[in-house]
Amino acid sequence: MISTSLAARATRRRLLYALAAAGGIGAVGGFGGRPLAAADPHPAPPGAGAARPAAPARPARRRGAGAVAVDAGRAREVRAEFLHAWRGYRRFAWGHDEVLPVSGGHRDFFVRGRPVGLSIVEALDTHYLMGLDDEVDGCLAWIEDRLDFDIDADFQVFEATIRLVGGLLAGHLATGSRVLLRRCVDLADRLLPAFAHSPTGMPYRYVNLRTGRVSGRTLPVAEIGTNILEFGVLSELTGDASYRRAAKRALRAVVERRSSLGLLATAMNVETGAWADRAAIAVDPPVDSFYEYLWGAWEMFGDEDCRDWFRLLVRALERHQAERVDGRLWFKHVDFRTGALISRRQSALSVAVLPVGGADALAADHYRSWTAVLDKYTVIPEEIDYTRLTALSTRNQLRPEYANCAFELYWQTGDSFYSTTAWRYFEALRTHHRVPGGYTVVTDLTRRPMTKGDLCPAYVFAENFKWLYLLFSGTPRFDYDRGWLSTEGKVLRGLRRA
Ligand code: DMJ
User: Fold this and answer.
1) Is the CB of 119 under 6 A from ligand 1?
2) Is 59 in the pocket of ligand 1 (CB under 6 A)?
3) Is the pTM of this model over 0.85?
4) If you take atom 11 of ligand 1, which residue's CA is the nearest one?
5) Closest ligand 1 atom, CA of 292?
6) How far is CA 36 from CA 25, 105, 177, 189, 476, in A?
7) Does 60 score more than 80 pLDDT?
8) What's the gap in Å between 432 CA and the centre of ligand 1?
9) Confidence of residue 355 (pLDDT cuts 50, 70, 90)
10) Are strands 451-452 and 442-444 parallel, antiparallel or unpaired?
11) How many Å apart are CA 447 and CA 424, to the nearest integer?
């Protein structure tokens, strides 16, 4: 039985708090004797420290009474498994982008033969949150000595932004390291030509980091519009508004091209501004994080345009794509101009979008839908046919999205359903993805034992264990009242200095 869902969301409490005074908080600790600079562009609310300038209203997250499911035993187990995965990387792939934990090899993520230590950058703030300060130290030393973005090769702008710019930013916010901020600014400046050379302001897909030559004029919506959080924080840290301005222009260009139904298609030619297809597939990838970043820009920077665009797009999503099958909420793929059905497939990545995006009632229902998939398969398949709840892919690429959503919804509601199911996710992760050399992808989750591939994607060091650790640890290094994380799990606001 299929019916359209029009769930409404509850109201959000709002608080006023002051913008960061230049300079932010002072350091009381350090890593390896390196000088720590003031880092947080969004320091603590008024009352703490010096007087701050008058500030615009910004939203604050709604919190449940028990927003942190503190369980020291579980937090320890999560941390131990993160360390197991990390030791595999350190042993077999140090300095390379990603570890192949079964064969003991490694692979480069952006350009073959040109590693940028991706897993090191991705892991920085996770190490910090878990109190693994020696590891933070080792990562900082590698970045200081070895990381150089003067590379004559094409880098994918979206991945470089969410993983590298975001990782370096979060690392800087955690440690105060000026080197991390310098590397971050250097990389962002090398990425900016992708925006500046485009007639529409929507970025090209690739940019040569040395020459600034751009390429790839047709790209999906998530790649066009998943950058305002990283670029916005960078603007605040540097005082240079051009990063945030470029990101905002790209968002606006996409939203302006929505159909009369208020839907976005999937991919755009950024030179002509013409859609390259007609499929509205949100909240699936490669559109997913476009939505997250609209709401994030409101939460992080008080950007009212982005808030309004988010609401407008989510209203259209509810009206034309949401449907219930046996009481479970899913989002069908439709023609973005007519609303005609294209398919009833759903990606496992979809579960993480709405809780980050301020549509909590929808998010909660969608999470319950994916929990039914977790119950059926133990490990969530990459993609399903939601009419029959059957796997269209038997793989799982060590996906973090279910844990991401569990953390977000627990954080917002304090409902133990999310901590219980998050723990189930963790136990399945440990049972089915663990190998002696770390953690690896599953290639067939319908077999027993599940068959495994040979890759630990770098995002595992940024996401899976971090979401779980934040959920169960209540670490004092994270400000649970006002923290904010990116689509790649980077803490862009609310890191507390040790
Ligand atoms: C991560 O790189 C990010 O979460 C991104 O937004 C898309 N998905 C992968 C992990 O699945």
Assistant:
1) no
2) no
3) yes
4) 399
5) 6
6) 11, 35, 5, 23, 19
7) no
8) 20
9) confident
10) antiparallel
11) 19
Q: pLDDT: is 160 or 32 the higher one?
A: 160
Q: Is the CB of 349 under 6 A from ligand 1?
A: yes
How many structural domains comprise the chain?
Answer: 1
Report residue 198: phi and psi, to 5°.
-90, 130
Distance 488 CA to ligand 1 centre (A): 6
Q: Is the C-beta atom of 465 inside 6 A of ligand 1?
A: no
Q: How far is the CA of 74 from the centre of ligand 1 (A)?
A: 24
Domain that holds residue 188: 59-478
Going by CA atoms, what residue is nearest to atom 4 of ligand 1?
488
Six token digits for residue 389:
């709840």
Q: Match 């476009």 to its residue by tokens.
A: 290
Please provide residue 139's backbone torsions phi and psi, each rounded to the nearest 5 degrees: -65, -45
**How do 279-280 and 333-335 pair as beta strands?**
antiparallel
Q: 48 CA distance to ligand 1 centroid (A)?
A: 35
246 lines ligand 1 (CB under 6 A): no
Task: Give residue 223's identity as a one-letter amino acid code.
Answer: E
Residues 432, 445 contacting (CB under 8 angstroms): yes
Quick check: is 426 in a domain? yes
Range of lowest pLDDT (41-50, 62-71, 193-202, 414-423): 41-50
Query: What are 87-104's pLDDT values in tens digits?
Result: 999 999 999 999 999 999
In a domain, 20, yes or no: no
| CATH number for the domain harbouring residue 194 | 1.50.10.10
Q: Lowest-confidence range among 62-71, 95-104, 236-245, 397-406?
A: 62-71
Whether ligand 1 lies within 6 angstroms of the CB of 399 is answered as: yes
DSSP 23-75: T-PPPS--BTTBPPPP--SS-PPTTSSS-------EE-----TT-S---HHHH
What confidence tier does 368 reach under pLDDT thresholds 50, 70, 90?
very high
Q: Dihedrals φ, ψ of 156, to 5°?
A: -75, 120
What's the angle, vertex CA 445, arms to CA 442 and CA 451, rounded to 5?
A: 55
How does pLDDT run across 296-340, given as a tens digit for each residue? 999 999 999 999 999 999 999 999 999 999 999 999 999 999 999
Q: Which of 121, 122, 347, 349 to mutate to test the pocket of ligand 1 (most atoms within 8 A of CB)?
A: 349
pLDDT for residue 357 is more than 90: no
Residue 19 maps to a domain:
no
Alpha helices in 239-327 (DSSP H): 242-255, 288-301, 304-320
In angstroms, the CA 31 to CA 39 distance is: 14
String of DSSP letters for 315-361: HHHHHHTEEEETTEEEE-EEETTT--EEE-EEEGGGGGHHHHTT-HH
173 within domain boundaries = yes
| Residue 298 and residue 306 in contact, taking contact as beta carbons nearer than 8 Å | yes
- Determine which residue's CA is closest to atom 1 belonging to ligand 1: 488
